[in-house]
Design a protein that fits this description.
Elements: E1 2-4, E2 15-21, E3 24-33, H1 38-46, E4 55-66, H2 68-83, E5 87-92, H3 98-106, H4 121-159, H5 167-177, H6 182-204, H7 212-251, H8 254-260, H9 265-304, H10 308-318, H11 321-347, H12 353-385
Parallel strand pairs: 3-4, 4-5
Antiparallel strand pairs: 1-2, 2-3
Helix pairs in contact: 1-2, 2-3, 4-9, 5-9, 6-7, 6-9, 7-9, 7-10, 7-11, 7-12, 9-11, 11-12
Length: 387
Amino acid sequence: MRNIEANVHVEHPAVLRTEDKGRLFRLIATGDWVISESPRLDKELAHLHMTDARDVEIDGSGIGLLDSAGAWLLLRTRRIFEESGRTVKVFSIPPHYQPLLDMIERDHTGGPVDPHRHHPSLVRLLERMGRETVLIGRQAYEFLGFLGRVTIEAFEAITSPRRELPFPALIHQIEETGVTALPIVGLLAFLLGIVLAYQGADQLKRFGAQIYTIDFLGVGFLRELGGLITAIIVAGRSGSAFTAQIGTMRVNEEIDAMQTLGLNVAEVLVLPRVLGLVIALPLLTFFADVVGIIGGLVMCYFDLGVTIPAFMRELQGAITVNTLLVGLIKAPVYAFLIALVGCFEGLRVERNADSVGKLTTRSVVESIFLVIAVDAGFSILFSVLGI
């Protein structure tokens, strides 16, 4: 047995001992493994005499105090043993420090070694695909459960006379997701209308059918582009805000406090956001449709010389009320998905700032993906129904 110690100014200096038992190598850690001890411990761990033992035990049950620096050193040591081909059979610390090690390991500071790192790349690829598939399946299952919970809460809030809708929060969400989004939605819709009219006119000029640019603009914007571009803007603007707001509340333990007070988190935090966006997005879509057509009108006036009365007559002949309704029917579905994903990812945030950023990004990506996928589904459905 060999002792590795040094004089330090702490109450219980960290002590590192090793035992070599042939096929078993034991590393025993006692004392206070804290940041003030870490420079010395780092040097001592770097100069450990590595024997030919294939099995390793790391016994930290005698540790008195442990902070993140000491936990990182222990995890790094275990990783070094594993990377050298040894098997760490025992890795023990006081139970009340286990959450600290789990958090550091999860945040990539000292994660476990991939047991298949030396396998062929195809094996690693298949393993990664399998792991991601299982993760996606688990997340989809949790999302469906969350969907059911929110649906029940919304139904009860609307139908139950004993429960009132949170109207102040609902009005606030309509203002935040709808009214304040008008400038950016209007600007992008106007520019998109100009681009669409210009590209359409450029192609139709070859056939002498420039007038049909108006038909192309009206049908395309009202049926598809108006609702789609608005949903994408809202997903990036409001969906990410939902995740960041709820995630920050989770990091600050405000959600835990609400649950302790007996408040229903789904009713207080999720429901106003979902209903507010479901109300606001159709109105934003209608606004985008109008502004987008105005943008196309401006382009047609200056590029094609089409007067405003001629533009309106051609547009009236190209579209009907059903054309507008087809685009507006999709908007509440888009809104429901965007708000649901934003709140779902916000409630999954862990207690660190890094998780807030990751899940906010994931929320935007998932929302836009679902919006486009649902839009494709609607297109197929309307085609089958002949709408």
